[in-house]
């Protein structure tokens, strides 16, 4: 009964905020619904690379009267489940935005809890030995212990012969990434004796792309943001130039497989001209 009261309370809260109430069906019906959506997804029209903005952890916790830490932990617990859905659907690459550079300005108490959750989550993902992990972001802005743990996770999975890679964006900002890429190009050209005038004359988009955190990877086909917000907030600014976007009302901790399948269904029916 306490769960039901909480559920009713959340629905009432969303209704007061003017949000669309989410459809709730019995589990067997959801299973049938998921199978119908899955059957409608042709293999050739599924994304190779999915980017996800994991948003809404704090609001989910607040709706239940819980502290932010509870929301962050539930959000972290959702990640392995989400990656298993990607594996089932042969998605080869996922980029997960877990912490932005802007998030580093949060209160010290909340930030300490959040960083601890991120460290534990990424460590567990690496320990599972199911995914190759690449860490992307300004690790120099993070506490040394967390930065070291992220590097260990990357190193310990680098040689895995597995079909899926996972980019973990921590201390990440899209503008920072582009600035870092430009600096890297300048340093590289300087090392080869080029002058600033020479670099300015011939630098192009290919040069910058080759120095992004995601260098060597395909750009995201689909970018998903949970929580109902409809903006990128700096996520993969360069790489998402031709991406499809899907904004989901569910907070990240309550994001379900059926929500993911709906996003894939939406993607599959879009005409992707890629600027042509």
TrEMBL record:
Binding site for Mg(2+): 55, 244
List of catalytic residues: 55, 103
EC number(s) given by UniProt: 2.5.1.-
UniProt-recorded Gene Ontology molecular function terms: ditrans,polycis-polyprenyl diphosphate synthase [(2E,6E)-farnesyl diphosphate specific] activity; magnesium ion binding; Z-farnesyl diphosphate synthase activity
The entry's keywords: Magnesium, Metal-binding, Transferase
GO cellular component, one term: plasma membrane
Cofactor, how bound (note): Binds 2 magnesium ions per subunit.
Entry keyword annotation includes NADP: no
Chain sites annotated for binding substrate: 56-60, 72, 100-102, 106, 225, 231-233
Statement: the UniProt record of this protein carries the keyword Phosphoprotein: no
GO BP terms, alphabetized: polyprenol biosynthetic process
Pfam families: Prenyltransf
CDD domains, A to Z: Cis_IPPS
SUPFAM superfamilies on file: Undecaprenyl diphosphate synthase
Highest taxon of the lineage: Bacteria
Cofactor(s) listed in the protein's UniProt record: Mg(2+)
Homology family: Belongs to the UPP synthase family. Z-FPP synthase subfamily.
Quaternary structure and interacting proteins, as annotated: Homodimer.
Role this protein plays: Catalyzes the condensation of isopentenyl diphosphate (IPP) with allylic pyrophosphates generating different type of terpenoids.
Protein name: Isoprenyl transferase
Organism: Rarobacter incanus
């Amino acid at each position: 009964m306490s769960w039901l009261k909480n559920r009713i309370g959340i629905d009432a809260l969303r209704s007061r905020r003017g949000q669309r109430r989410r459809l709730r069906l019995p589990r067997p019906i959801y299973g049938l619904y998921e199978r119908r959506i899955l059957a409608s997804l042709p293999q050739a029209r599924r994304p190779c690379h999915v980017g996800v903005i994991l948003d809404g952890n704090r609001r989910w916790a607040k709706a239940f009267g819980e502290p932010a830490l509870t929301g962050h932990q539930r959000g972290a617990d959702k990640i392995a489940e989400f990656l298993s859905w990607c594996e089932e659907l042969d998605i080869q690459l996922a980029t997960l935005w877990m912490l932005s550079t802007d998030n580093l300005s949060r209160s010290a108490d909340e930030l300490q809890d959040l960083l601890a959750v991120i460290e534990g989550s990424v460590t567990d993902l690496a320990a599972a030995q199911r995914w190759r992990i690449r860490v992307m972001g300004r690790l120099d802005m993070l506490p040394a212990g967390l930065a070291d743990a992220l590097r260990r996770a990357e190193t310990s999975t680098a040689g895995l012969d597995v079909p899926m890679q996972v980019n973990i964006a921590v201390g990440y900002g899209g503008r920072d990434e582009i600035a870092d890429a430009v600096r890297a190009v300048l340093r590289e050209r300087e090392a080869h004796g080029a002058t600033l005038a020479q670099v300015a004359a011939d630098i192009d988009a290919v040069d910058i792309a080759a120095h992004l955190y995601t260098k060597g990877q395909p750009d995201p086909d689909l970018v998903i943001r949970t929580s109902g917000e409809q903006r990128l907030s700096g996520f993969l600014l360069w790489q998402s130039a031709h991406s499809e976007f899907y904004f989901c009302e569910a907070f990240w901790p309550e994001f379900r497989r059926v929500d993911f399948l709906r996003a894939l269904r939406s993607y599959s029916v879009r005409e992707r001209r890629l600027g042509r």
